[in-house]
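Could you join me in thinking about how sequence relates to backbone shape in a protein? Would you write everything just below, so we can both look at the same thing?
***
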Amino acid sequence: MSRGARCADARTVRRTSFVALALGAIACTPGKSTSPASTAADAGAEATASVANVVDASADATRGAEAATRGAEAATPETETPPAPTFDELVTMLFADRATTAPILAACPGTLPGDARVRCLYDERYKGDPKAASIAHELYVKWRVVAGVEVAHTMDGGYRGMIRIEPAVPVGENRHHLEWVAAAIRDFDTFFGELQKAHAAVPSATGGSPKPYRFKPITLRFMRSVGARTPAAYAHDWEIAYNFVGTLNVSAEAVRETMFHEVFHLNDAAHGDWSPVALGSVFDAVVKKCGTAIACLGPYTPNGTIVRGGTYYSFQPGNGVREYAAELALRYYREQRIALRDLARVKPFKCGPPENGRAWALMRDEFFGGVDAVPACSP
């Protein structure tokens, strides 16, 4: 569902075609590290009930519920950066919660120079918290990431029922959410710069450029769910909505990984709804072999997240291959980040069962220019 269509009624909407990270409460095993090194550890070793992340089975279906409709919305990969939004578009993104923007336009008149007028918008949006205004403005100036607010609406959460979504501004006690998202974007910028250098140093790398994975420009829409703690985030049409009270949004690291997962969904759609065609046979073969058995699925899951009362999130019934693909992209990011920055090593996902290696190579070549800084598997 396009934003234009959804905003036709900002009060009650049955959303059926969004990509959502809708995990429930995380229960971390006491004493277990949640650093990139530990959370990216060999999935086979985490095929136990004491995995690092456990999520509520009643809150997971949203991420995969739109599978039947996304293919029709998929576009071809973009080759050019979209133009910067107009001033009026910025006003709409930043003040989606306002019935009228007349006071904003009066405060930021057309007589102001262009850059000063844009900065004025951020000062108005984040009024009372100059630090938040500066962070949000930096996101726009450096990466064309517009940190605005979501439109009030009621989301169809599948069997979780209808969920009320309200716009929210990340200021004051909630500023840390904006800080965490900004830190994620900075890290992505650094990561893809490192990937570009690695690509140039590896003549055998395929795919031309390792930067078809777009993380900018995008629009952020901050919000909070009413009476619920899901979804943590959802993504569509190069926009990501971020929930202040989402159970996953508890640390800078968790938010960084949430963002990478969500941005993958956007790229997957932009690559012609790539994952069902490219990874469907691998995914289906694993599901046919293992069903939902955690012990069997352990060696095949890109990450150790388990749905409480269910199975690994990558293979949770109702999620589908697109969620497996997003988790695989996240695993790629984790492992490459570790290898490129010489952090603590983990057992490479590609060195597990043959299905892992096939999926890894397909993901690597489609989205990351064939770059793989992780050492080859031992015989």
Observations:
- The radius of gyration is 20 Å.
- The chain has one domain: 3-84+144-367.
